[in-house]
């Protein structure tokens, strides 16, 4: 039976244009989805937009439009960004879609009927920028007198009637979950943070608002709209057709991985499993938080406005170098400060030199000295075998790293092979073999390099889909032989290879010229 794999990104607030932070989580999830597809899994990859709540309503008012036209426009922009960055989502859910609204209301009805929801009044602090409630003990006062949450977002005092979810009933069961499923939250630092939050004991959660209208109406009480996080978390189920549990839900739920940013781990690792347990729905297997891209040390954010536009970078450098840089530069799960210089260095050194040049050197010699036909392999030396072994180990080794979201380790594993191949070509010097008339040995060396490059390009497809498709074309690998299992079938000797073309041109920075 085909194994399934379900991965999700957060659904992004449509209060402003997408930036590199959103592209980051989406590209990382895309790498995992593409990896599993190449490994033969039945994959469901979900992304989308979070369109309700006070923050979005305020942004619409500030833009001078009604909320629906505003969210239609910004959601289209997020979708466009995902497509441009080559994010291969299977569905793009929008929380203003009828299918989503219906699912939220149905879960609400069921939990209310089972006694998990009650009507009360909320009195406390709220940060619209975070769309989150805070306890007085979590706040600090800025020098200018403004009271702020730990995230730096200003808070305001809110008093209004509200429905509550009995979150306090779930403290022990959540702690038992973290204990029995140690992999439920990653990385470890985030797990500890969630544990210490839940160990303090949970208070009931306010899940409806009455002071504005832009949300999903509460069934049976139209004065209330649902708290935007209740609505947002439900996207993972509404996209799978909840409450129908037979179709996509049977095939793809529970999710294998919710990928999120570190600031929203609490919503995914505390509130969400509590809602699901109350509803008797199986829990996702893992929630993993990526770190933050900062600009001059501060989190890049739409609300702050210090952002880098991913599509502009893709226009300037190409989509793949941007995808590569984001996942190569910083250990996945940690933070990084955005650096244009860093991107140019990675592009020139690792893509143009290490990988691009290796392919170019190998393929141009085949074009020149083997009549453009893939040379057969003669007998292999220990040096040849060692390099081939290293390359053949990549799918399994990198797969294990990707399964624990160590994307940077997976890339490093591959670069070890690329660096070893560069040493190999220098050491074996096929150009010298040619001069010495050792044509057969020259052919074997080039063939070893083609076979190694084929492995490298195959496992790098999830990271750099367009460029690696080009490289596989040049290596003569047919379109339908690019999955991991295909690597067991050797390329036929003597096939004609297309004329090689550079894949990663070096970037000359006009700013530095
Ligand atoms: O929180 N660095 O939406 P959001 C790295 N709608 N990742 C970043 C980032 C940065 N500087 N900025 C944003 C929401 N991200 C909710 C989510 S889910 C049911 C609801 C990424 O538009 C990161 O994944 O504020 C973060 O969690 C997400 O975008 C937040 O996007």
From TrEMBL:
Subunit structure: Monomer.
EC number: 6.1.1.10
Chief subcellular location: cytoplasm
Domain of life: Bacteria
Chain ranges for the short sequence motif 'HIGH' region as given in the UniProt record: 12-22
Catalytic reaction annotation: tRNA(Met) + L-methionine + ATP = L-methionyl-tRNA(Met) + AMP + diphosphate
Domain Methionyl-tRNA synthetase anticodon-binding: 375-509
UniProt name for this protein: Methionine--tRNA ligase
InterPro entries per UniProt: Anticodon_Met, Met-tRNA_synth, Met-tRNA_synth_2, Methionyl/Leucyl_tRNA_Synth, MetRS_core, Rossmann-like_a/b/a_fold, tRNAsynth_Ia_anticodon-bd
Its job: Is required not only for elongation of protein synthesis but also for the initiation of all mRNA translation through initiator tRNA(fMet) aminoacylation.
Domain named Methionyl/Leucyl tRNA synthetase: residues: 6-363
Motif ('KMSKS' region): 299-303
Compartments where located: Cytoplasm
Family label: Belongs to the class-I aminoacyl-tRNA synthetase family. MetG type 2B subfamily.
Enzyme class: ligase
Alphabetized UniProt keyword annotations: Aminoacyl-tRNA synthetase, ATP-binding, Cytoplasm, Ligase, Nucleotide-binding, Protein biosynthesis
């Amino acid at each position: 039976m085909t194994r399934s794999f379900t991965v999700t990104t957060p659904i992004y607030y449509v209060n402003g244009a997408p930036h590199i932070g959103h592209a980051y989580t989406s590209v990382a999830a895309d790498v995992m989805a593409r990896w599993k597809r190449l490994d033969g899994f039945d994959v469901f990859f979900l992304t989308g937009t979070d369109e309700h709540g006070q923050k979005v309503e305020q942004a619409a008012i500030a833009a001078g439009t009604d909320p629906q036209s505003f969210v239609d426009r910004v959601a289209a922009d997020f979708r466009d960004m995902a497509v441009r960055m080559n994010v291969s989502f299977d569905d793009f859910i929008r929380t203003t879609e009828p299918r989503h609204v219906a699912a939220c209301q149905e879960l609400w009805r069921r939990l209310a009927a089972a006694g998990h929801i009650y009507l009360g009044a909320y009195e406390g602090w709220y940060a619209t920028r975070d769309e989150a409630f805070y306890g007085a003990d979590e706040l600090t006062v800025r020098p200018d007198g403004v009271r702020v949450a730990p995230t730096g977002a200003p808070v305001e005092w809110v008093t209004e009637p509200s429905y509550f979810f009995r979150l306090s009933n779930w403290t022990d069961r959540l702690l038992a979950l973290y204990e029995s499923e140690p992999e439920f939250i990653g990385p470890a630092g985030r797990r500890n943070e969630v544990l210490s939050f839940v160990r303090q004991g949970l208070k009931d959660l306010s899940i409806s608002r009455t002071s504005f209208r832009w949300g999903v109406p509460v069934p049976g009480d139209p004065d209330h709209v649902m708290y935007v996080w209740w609505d947002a978390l439900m996207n993972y189920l509404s996209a799978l057709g909840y409450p129908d549990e037979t179709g996509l839900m049977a095939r793809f739920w529970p999710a294998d991985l919710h990928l999120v940013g570190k600031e929203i781990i609490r919503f995914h690792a505390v509130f969400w499993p509590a809602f699901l347990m109350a509803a008797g729905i199986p829990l996702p297997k893992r929630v993993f938080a990526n770190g933050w891209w900062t600009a001059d040390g501060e989190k890049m954010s739409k609300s702050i406005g210090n952002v880098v536009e991913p599509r502009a970078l893709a226009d300037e450098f190409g989509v793949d170098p941007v995808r590569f840089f984001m996942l190569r530069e910083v250990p996945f799960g940690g933070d990084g400060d955005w650096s244009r210089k860093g991107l140019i260095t990675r592009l020139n050194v690792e893509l143009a030199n290490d990988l691009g040049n290796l392919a170019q050197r190998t393929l141009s010699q085949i074009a020149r000295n083997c009549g453009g036909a893939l040379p057969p392999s003669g007998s292999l030396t220990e040096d040849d075998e060692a390099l081939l072994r290293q390359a053949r180990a990549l799918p399994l080794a990198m797969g294990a790293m990707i399964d624990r979201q160590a994307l940077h380790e997976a890339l490093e594993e591959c670069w070890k092979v690329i660096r070893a191949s560069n040493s190999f070509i220098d050491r074996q010097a096929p150009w010298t073999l040619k001069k010495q008339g050792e044509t057969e040995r020259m052919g074997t060396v080039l063939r070893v390099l083609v076979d190694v490059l084929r492995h490298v390009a195959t496992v790098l497809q999830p990271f750099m889909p367009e460029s690696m498709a080009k490289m596989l074309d040049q290596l003569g690998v047919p379109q339908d032989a690019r999955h991991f299992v295909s690597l067991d079938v050797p390329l036929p000797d003597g096939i004609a290879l297309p004329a090689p073309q550079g894949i990663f041109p070096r970037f000359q920075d006009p700013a530095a010229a």
